[in-house]
Amino acid sequence: MKRKEIKEALKSENFEQEIVVMGWVRTKRASKNVAFIALNDGSVIHSLQLVVDLEIIPELELALMHTGAAVSAKGKLVPSAGSGQKVELSVSSIELLGEANPDEYPLQPKKHSLEFLREKAHLRFRTNTFGAISRLRHAMIFAVHKFFNDKGYLNIHAPIITGSDAEGAGEMFQVSTLNLEKLSFTEEGKVDFKHDFFGKSANLTVSGQLEAELAALALSKVYTFGPTFRAENSNTSRHLAEFWMIEPEVAFFDIHDDMDLAEEMLKYLIQYALDNCADDLDFLSKRLEEEEKNKKAEDRSMELISKLKFVLEQPFERITYTEAIDILRNSNHNKKGKFHYPIEKWGADLQSEHERYLVEKHFKKPVILTDYPNEIKAFYMKQNEDGKTVRAMDVLFPGIGEIIGGSQREEDYDKLLKRMKDMKIPLENMWWYLETRKFGSVPHAGFGLGFERLMLFVSGMGNIRDVIPFPRTPLNCEF
Ligand code: 4AD
Ligand code: MG
Fold it and tell me: Using 50, 70 and 90 to split pLDDT, how confident is the model at 299?
């Protein structure tokens, strides 16, 4: 008989036919004549209750159906008397598929800490929390593609191995087949990459933007959605060494069009989650509420679903970096020395504490900051007339800080070349990028959304290591 998914079984009102379900035991309790097994197959957050008459199964066999064991059960659905479920399965036969010795199986039917579960990332998919996050993550991936597809954008696969540094920040992982124990050197004493796989030094990409720009300057509307890698030694709850980024790039767009697209996309994705992931969000909301109970009232975050709806209803605040610096510098928070990095003068790079102050305390809604000092932004951003700022735009979110970074791009060949030289960007790796400014250059703009930062926001989780299946962070590359 074909397996029925538990998601379908729980919705079914067919009490006549026998069905077969398969999954993993979450809990089991036995009374005198019957055993109750909560079975989960990952198709939905809820488990199906199996009611097993002890007469149909030898005691020894039932004893093996512990938490974590895999079983297959056949039976008829019946209306459930218990609370929390409409139906349960009255089992006619049940079979053990895979044992999970309780002396060794690390997951107990109780709440485990997220830190503990990170060490058990091979099994944490089996918890309610990671089941919910996995389904939500899938829904968000699907929604990203749907959003762009419905608008006529083309998805471009940017390369993962590159010979250039898209952000010019030097935070790259190297890719090489050289034998590190037997390196050969040039006369200047540098590693000789001529004998390396690509005949030159290569690295993992930090962003697909530069390649997306090439495509946009022919196809007009494109986006990438791929893994990106940063070898920055940031051990925070918002940084990964390997994360996924969505990067639309659009010809004939200026910074205002770019902001409009960013706001529209974020709202679309949040709405999609509310419309399609109600059960999982409900669970995650309760989880967050439990977690927040340990915090002081003023530090508690808003209830998850209200927070998502709240963001949908607000037009994002749009201000310049210069205005933001004024607000921050004059804030009581700054005057009382409450910032770890006090804001003294124009030009300071904003830390997440400043971003979050603007969003959470001052404006109380998402904020888009534009026109940052050129000194703290990448070489490709369009230079403003003032000679000091560039047409950057960062979207800041509650609880997160920067969720999107983007800009209008410099389309003028001479200005771009000068800035690249000033910033010591190796031109020999970038000739192709510069050529697009020689041949049919047009204004264009784009941005990058950190997919795991979006996941943090939508799931209400507090640590980025818990919204990606297998996090890569400094000193951590298990699984
Ligand atoms: O601001 P970033 O560095 O911008 C770029 O890479 C541009 N090339 C994007 C573009 O214009 N096409 O990164 C974009 C976003 C950030 O706003 C943040 O959400 C996320 O990527 N991000 C990270 N997420 C997790 N871990 C990290 N180490 C991240 N670094 C950036
Ligand atoms: Mg940024």
Answer: confident
4 has a pLDDT exceeding 80: yes
Query: Quick one: which H or E segment has residue 131?
Result: helix 128-150
CB atoms within 10 A of CB 277: 23
CB 110 within 8 A of CB 445: no
Predicted confidence band at 141 (pLDDT cuts at 50, 70, 90)? very high
DSSP 168-195: SS----EE--S-TTS--B-TTSSB-GGG
Q: What's the gap in Å between 230 CA and the centre of ligand 1?
A: 9
Tens digit of each residue's pLDDT (9 = 90 or more) over 30-46 = 988 999 999 999 999 99
* Segment 141-152 mean pLDDT: 98
Reported residue count of the chain is 479
Neighbouring CB atoms inside 10 A of 438's CB total 8
pLDDT class of 84 with cuts at 50, 70, 90? confident
Ligand with the closest atom to the CA of 406: 1
Please give the pLDDT value at position 210: 97
126-171+206-466 CATH: 3.30.930.10
Q: Whose CA is nearest to atom 25 of ligand 1?
A: 239
**Same fold for the domain at 6-110 and the one at 126-171+206-466?**
no
**Domain with residues 6-110, CATH architecture:** Beta Barrel (2.40)
Ligand 1, atom 15, residue with closest C-alpha: 450
Residue 286 has pLDDT above 90, yes or no: yes
Tell me how far the alpha carbon of residue 247 lies from the centroid of ligand 2, in angstroms: 12
At 27 the three-state DSSP class reads: strand
Ligand closest to CA 209: 1
Q: pLDDT at position 43, please? A: 98
Tell me if 355 sits within 8 A of 401, measured CB to CB: yes
Residue 211, phi then psi, degrees to nearest 5:
-70, -35
pLDDT over threshold 80, residue 419: yes
> Which ligand lies nearest to the CA atom of residue 376 in the structure?
2
Q: How far is the CA of 247 from the centre of ligand 1 (A)?
A: 9
Q: How far is the CA of 418 from the centre of ligand 2 (A)?
A: 22
Cβ of 168 below 6 Å from ligand 1: no
Residue 177 — φ and ψ, nearest 5°?
Answer: -110, 10
User: How many angstroms does the Cα of residue 99 sit away from the middle of ligand 2?
Assistant: 48
Pocket lining: 247 vs ligand 1, CB cutoff 6 Å:
yes
What local confidence, expressed as pLDDT, does residue 109 receive? 85
The CB of 409 under 6 Å from ligand 1? The reply is: no
The structural domains of the chain, with segments of one domain joined by +, span 6-110, 126-171+206-466
Looking at the chain, the number of H-run helices and the number of E-run strands are: 14, 16
